[in-house]
């Protein structure tokens, strides 16, 4: 006999991040990971550097100051906030706490890969509901919920598609779920949406909803891995029982607090993403691609069937020219590519590389 993992572990496809290197290219333009084009707040950078003098000390395991800052920023209860090493860890904690072998997790067809990894690691089965024009179909998701369902994941705006649905539809999804089923609403791109991100808190009073957010996108702190969930108090208590101690470093906590206080930087980031995605979508459409409705800090394009180059051809050709975008074949979207809204230099390089490739 040899050690045998749970059967669902074999169903897990390891997470594939956006490429950061191209063979034979020394310096690349990276538009493959939806990172903040403006970097991060200078105040957050200073706070991180100042925290370096205390690297020999353990961080506050409960991240009390950061939770209080988040509570003040969003007018919510600090004791209901759970901090994670990115929102990915919140997904994992929730699945560990509430899914058992044989349970079912329901998600949209084009779903963030970390959700299924977390669910299958807990022994659960994953059911993917059909989408409508690359957007979440609430009725299709509810139709997938059965007696074994214990959790439902949805993101709004969504990744990898970049589409979103009216928040009233998210509320309808929640209203259609049995009370024992947890709805996890991933708000990684919430602030970039065309609707007011404050509407997320309309579900905060529900006993079966976990709202998740991240400091990786809007705040530009992707390398520090800071995410958080807002949960009912009993759920927060359950997640904190299995959350590993010291999971968010002291420099990361300090930088996150400073980032929350820099309203000017976040406003510039939102404005840049919204203006940039509109320009990028228009350019892609003019070139003959189908730009999915963009509501985050990226645009997902679909290569029409009649196009003379495939998505794989374009992905490879751009990489050869030093521009990296995200292929989506592992998401079941082999004819699509995802392009982050970069800074002006990066977008000019992308435009020139794509026109060179099409011209060739």
How would you characterize the overall build of this protein?
This protein is an alpha/beta fold and 360 residues long. The protein has two domains: 10-39 and 264-359, Aspartate Aminotransferase, domain 1, CATH 3.90.1150.10; 42-261, Aspartate Aminotransferase, domain 2 (3-Layer(aba) Sandwich), CATH 3.40.640.10. The protein is 36% helix and 15% strand. It has eleven helices and 13 strands. The chain has a seven-stranded mixed β-sheet, with helices on both faces. The longest helix has 24 residues, at 263-286. The N and C termini lie far apart (58 Å). The mean pLDDT is 95.
Tell me how many strands there are.
13
CATH C-level of the largest domain: Alpha Beta
Domain module count: 2
| CATH topology label of the largest domain | Aspartate Aminotransferase, domain 2
Shape: globular
- What structural class do helix, strand and pairing data support? alpha/beta
Portion in beta strands: 15-25%
Chain-averaged pLDDT: 95
CATH architecture descriptor text of the largest domain: 3-Layer(aba) Sandwich
- Please work out how many helical segments DSSP would assign: 11
| Helix residue percentage | 25-40%
The radius of gyration over CA amounts to 20 Å
Features:
360 residues, alpha/beta, Aspartate Aminotransferase, domain 2, seven-stranded mixed sheet, four-stranded antiparallel sheet, 36% helix, globular
């Amino acid at each position: 006999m040899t050690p045998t993992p749970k059967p669902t572990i074999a169903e897990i496809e390891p997470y594939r991040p956006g490429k950061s290197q191209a063979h034979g290219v020394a310096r690349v333009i990276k538009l493959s990971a939806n990172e903040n084009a403006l970097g991060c707040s200078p105040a957050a950078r200073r706070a991180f550097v100042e925290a370096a003098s205390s690297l020999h000390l353990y961080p506050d395991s409960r991240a009390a100051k950061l939770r209080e800052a988040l509570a003040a920023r969003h007018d919510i209860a600090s004791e209901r906030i759970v901090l994670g090493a990115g929102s990915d860890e919140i997904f994992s904690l929730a699945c560990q706490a509430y899914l058992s072998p044989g349970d079912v997790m329901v998600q949209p067809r084009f779903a963030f890969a970390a959700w299924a990894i977390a669910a299958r690691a807990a022994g659960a089965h994953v059911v993917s509901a059909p989408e409508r024009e690359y957007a979440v179909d609430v009725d299709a998701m509810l139709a997938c919920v059965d007696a074994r369902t214990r959790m439902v994941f949805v993101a709004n705006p969504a990744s990898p598609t970049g589409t979103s649905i009216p928040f009233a539809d998210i509320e309808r999804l929640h209203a259609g779920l049995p009370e024992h089923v947890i709805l996890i609403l991933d708000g990684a791109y919430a602030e970039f949406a065309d609707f007011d991100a404050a509407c997320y808190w309309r579900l905060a009073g529900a006993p079966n909803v976990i709202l998740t957010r991240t400091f990786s996108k809007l705040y530009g702190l992707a390398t520090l891995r800071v995410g958080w969930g807002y949960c009912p108090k009993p759920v927060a208590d359950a997640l904190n029982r299995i959350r590993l101690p010291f999971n968010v470093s002291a420099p990361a906590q300090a930088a996150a607090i400073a980032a929350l206080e820099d309203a000017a930087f976040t406003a510039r980031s939102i404005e840049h993403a919204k203006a940039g995605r509109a320009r990028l979508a228009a350019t892609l459409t003019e070139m003959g691609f189908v730009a999915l409705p963009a509501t985050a800090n990226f645009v997902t394009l679909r290569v029409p069937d009649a196009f003379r180059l495939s998505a794989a051809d374009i992905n490879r050709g751009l990489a050869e020219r030093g521009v990296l975008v995200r292929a989506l074949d592992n998401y079941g979207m082999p004819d699509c590519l995802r392009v982050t809204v970069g800074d002006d230099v990066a977008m000019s390089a992308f435009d020139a590389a794509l026109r060179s490739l099409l011209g060739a």
